[in-house]
Each structure stands twice: as structure tokens, then as C-alpha cells.
Design a protein that fits this description.
This is Protein SEEDLING LETHAL 1, chloroplastic. There is one protein chain. The protein is mostly helical and 364 residues long. It has 21 helices and no strands. α12 (201-214) packs across α13 (224-232) and α18 packs antiparallel against α21. The longest helix is centred in the N-terminal third of the chain and has 37 residues, at 2-38. The termini are far apart.
């Protein structure tokens, strides 16, 4: 009996040592592959390979996945980014697991750069085809009416196919209906910002109350759903940091509420953009919070591509008295590009050649 037990113990020890040797050798091969085939540094390759389990390392040749991604249209940099975040993909079963998922996207119309972008922005390749992806696509097809509409929506929000939509979305639709919103309104917002129906109902209800009670946006206002759209992507700490920036420039809570009622999407700008925009309008141009709140679109336009170039044109026209009457920056900035050039730029091209060239360069 002792001999048999000793033999079994030796067998187990040999098996453990062999597995350790095999996984170590496989990991070394993987590191070499990542460096030589995808341009990883040694440090990046070692870090990435450490995320792969030993059992995974024994499964499949990673070159097969690279061949598949090359056929889809991905370049080395895109593949490297994807593999860095999900290295286990290199050892997925190509024919049984990955190809069917990619074919599902191709069947609804995604191809070329759209398909590549979707794969890089989503972890859907790691999701179950029959447990998550197909049920979600079927649900979207029924909800939106066509696969063309589905393709447009998932291009906007690739993470849709990483969620169990038949379970996640209906409670949110029911909540909004109970609050008085029509299915048409809900669908319209879903097309614009699909992410807002992916939150749990408690979160969405909190946002609804926040829009109505904290920012005084009337529920019957056409801006109410827009306010929900804007707020649903902001957690409490991020929202508070942005509000503190406005307050640091002298904005009162009533100013902030007025801005949100006018254009809720001002809250979706980055903290850096909010700060630089307020600095320009208030510190450099001298605008008051109340004026900016009532002319909120000024805060959303691109500073470098629109606001500053147009302000320079108006400044030149004023200084040289080339246009009679009052020149409003808000009117100029909110004008379509063709109208602005026709009224403020082209008639004075010869009088301001250097400024004209600079304007064209900055806005092209």
C-alpha cells in the first residue's frame, strides 16, 4: 500500500511540474509572440501574458486570431490595443466562438472601419453569443423596427451588446412611461444617447428627480428629457466637481439652474473645457454669469475652431469700423459657417488678408 501511495504521489508531483513547465514555456512563447508580432515592449508583453490563465495558454495558436483580425481590417496598432485589454482573445476558439460573433455584426450591416471601431470599443467578443449578443440584437430589432436602426444605435454605443438588454431596458422604459413620457419620446432619446437606458431604474429615477428638483427643469419642458440624458452619465462626484467650477467663477445656483434649463448638455463638457470656456468669456471678455446662463450654447461651441476665430474677426471689424451697428458675438458664433463667412469674412477679405488666412486655417 505504501508503494502505491508513494507512486501516486510521485505521479502527482511529476504532473504538477510538467504543467508548471508547460505553462512557463507557453508564457515565454506568448511574450515572444507579443513582442515580435504585435510590437509590444518586453515589459508590456510580460504584463499582458500574466493576465492569461495557465489552462488558456494550452488551447490555441494566437496567430489564428491575428489572421482573423487582419481579414476584418484591423491594423497592428488596433490589434495590440485589443489584445492588451483582453489577451485571452488570442486563445479563443476561432470557428466556434469568434467568427460567429463577427458574422452576426456583418449580417446587420457593420463592415470596414465601422466593424473595426465596434470591436475595439466593445468587449462583446468576450460575451456569450446565445446568452447575451443574439438576445440583445433580437430585442433591439423588435424595439427599433429594423436592423439598419440597430446598426446605427450600436455604432453610437458599442457597449449595448455587452448588456442583457431584454432584462435591463424594459424596467427603465416602464419607469419613464409612468412619469408621463411617451414611447416616441423615449425612443428618440435612445437614438441620441443609447446609454441612458442601460442604468438600473433606481439610478434613472434619481436622475429624474435631480433634473426636476435640483435643477428646476419642469417635467413638461422639452428640455426635461435632454436634462436626463445629460445627467445620467454623471456620477455625483463628477457632477459636483463641475458645479464647483461654475461656482468658483461666481455663478449662483440659480444661474446654474437657468443654464441647465436652457441647455443641459453644458454639464457634459469636460472639467477642463468648462474652466477654459468660463475663463475666456468671463475673465477675458467680461461676460456675467446671468448672460452666459441665458445664452448657454456659447459654452458648448468649440473654442479653438469656432468661438475664438470668430471673435478675432469681430474684433478686427469693430476696431476698423468696417460694419455699422452693434456686433453680437452670440449671434456671430451661433450663425452657420456659410452665413458667417458671407456676412463677416468674405466682404473684408482684402482688408484683413492675414487674419482671413488665419481664420480659414483654424476653421478648416
Amino acid at each position: 500500500m505504501f508503494g502505491i501511495s508513494s507512486y501516486c504521489a510521485k505521479e502527482r508531483l511529476f504532473s504538477i511540474r510538467f504543467q508548471l513547465f508547460y505553462s512557463t514555456a507557453a508564457a515565454t512563447t506568448l511574450v515572444d509572440f507579443l513582442v515580435n508580432s504585435l510590437g509590444f515592449s518586453n515589459k508590456e508583453a510580460i504584463s499582458t501574458s500574466s493576465k492569461v490563465t495557465r489552462s488558456t495558454l494550452r488551447n490555441y495558436e494566437p496567430q489564428l486570431l491575428l489572421d482573423l483580425f487582419h481579414k476584418v481590417g484591423m491594423n497592428k496598432t488596433q490589434i495590440k490595443t485589443l489584445v492588451s485589454s483582453s489577451p485571452e482573445l488570442l486563445f479563443s476558439h476561432i470557428d466556434k466562438n469568434l467568427k460567429p460573433k463577427i458574422m452576426v455584426l456583418q449580417e446587420i450591416g457593420l463592415s470596414g472601419s465601422d466593424l473595426v471601431t465596434f470591436i475595439n470599443k466593445s468587449d462583446f467578443l468576450m460575451r456569450g453569443l446565445h446568452t447575451t449578443i443574439k438576445p440583445s440584437l433580437d430585442y433591439l430589432r423588435e424595439y427599433l423596427g429594423s436592423y439598419d436602426a440597430v446598426a446605427r444605435v450600436i455604432k453610437k454605443e458599442p457597449r449595448l451588446l455587452s448588456s442583457n438588454l431584454p432584462k435591463v431596458i424594459p424596467p427603465n422604459i416602464l419607469l419613464l412611461q409612468n412619469l408621463g413620457f411617451s414611447l416616441g419620446d423615449i425612443e428618440t432619446v435612445f437614438h441620441r444617447r443609447p446609454r441612458y437606458l442601460l442604468n438600473n431604474p433606481e439610478w434613472l429615477e434619481r436622475v429624474v428627480n435631480q433634473a426636476e428638483k435640483s435643477f428646476n427643469v419642469p417635467r413638461e419642458s422639452r428640455m426635461f428629457l435632454h436634462a436626463i440624458e445629460a445627467l445620467v452619465s454623471l456620477d455625483e462626484s463628477k457632477l459636483e466637481r463641475k458645479l464647483d467650477i461654475f461656482r468658483s467663477f461666481g455663478w449662483s445656483d440659480s444661474d446654474i439652474c437657468a443654464m441647465v434649463r436652457k441647455l443641459p448638455y453644458c454639464l457634459t463638457s469636460s472639467e477642463a473645457k468648462i474652466r477654459s470656456t468660463l475663463k475666456f468669456f468671463m475673465t477675458e471678455l467680461g461676460y456675467e454669469p446671468s448672460y452666459l446662463a441665458s445664452h448657454a450654447p456659447l459654452l458648448k461651441y468649440s473654442m479653438e475652431k469656432r468661438v475664438k476665430p470668430r471673435n478675432e474677426i469681430l474684433k478686427f471689424l469693430k476696431e476698423n469700423q468696417l460694419i455699422k451697428g452693434k456686433l453680437s458675438l452670440y449671434t456671430a458664433v451661433s450663425s452657420p459657417e456659410s452665413r458667417f463667412r458671407k456676412k463677416y469674412v468674405l466682404p473684408f477679405k482684402e482688408k484683413m488678408p492675414e487674419l482671413y488666412d488665419l481664420y480659414i486655417k483654424n476653421t478648416s
